[in-house]
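Might I ask for a little of your time on a matter of protein folding? What I wish to show you is a protein chain and, alongside it, a tokenised description of its three-dimensional fold. I should value your view on which stretches of the chain appear to form regular backbone elements. You will find the record immediately after this paragraph:
***
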Amino acid sequence: MNKKYIVDLSDNEREPLLSIVNKGKGPSYRIKHAYILLNSDKNGKDLSDQEISELLHCHSQTVVNVRKRFVEFGLESALERKKREIPPIPKKLDGDKEARLFAIACSQPPEGRKRWTLQLLADELVTLNIVDDISAKTVGRTLKKLK
């Protein structure tokens, strides 16, 4: 199978990869990605995707993805994992809702209370239909940003 993304490492790129591999310190995926790049270098071993995946005990698609990121985005991108574009769970409080939470927290507490608790704030956000539901911990993390 012809490789679509050809890795051609310069001496300046090979040096940090060899350093990562020889030290063996850092996240395992970073070391594995360095091995993939070194083994797929056309001026080096130039192994096939299948040979590299068997050598490193990873999926052949991992080899393809690392080579692709190297060719398209450079060395640092190839060594790191792909960053998520969208978080797995959307935020409960955006900027407008956060501002309303801060305003409530700075206002007078309910009758019979000396101060707002996180649970009271969470209940108030639900009562005012700012959010459908929210935990006191989420309110606490959001208010922590205020400091």
Summary: Residues 95-144 form one domain. Residues 17 and 34 are 5 Å apart (CA to CA).
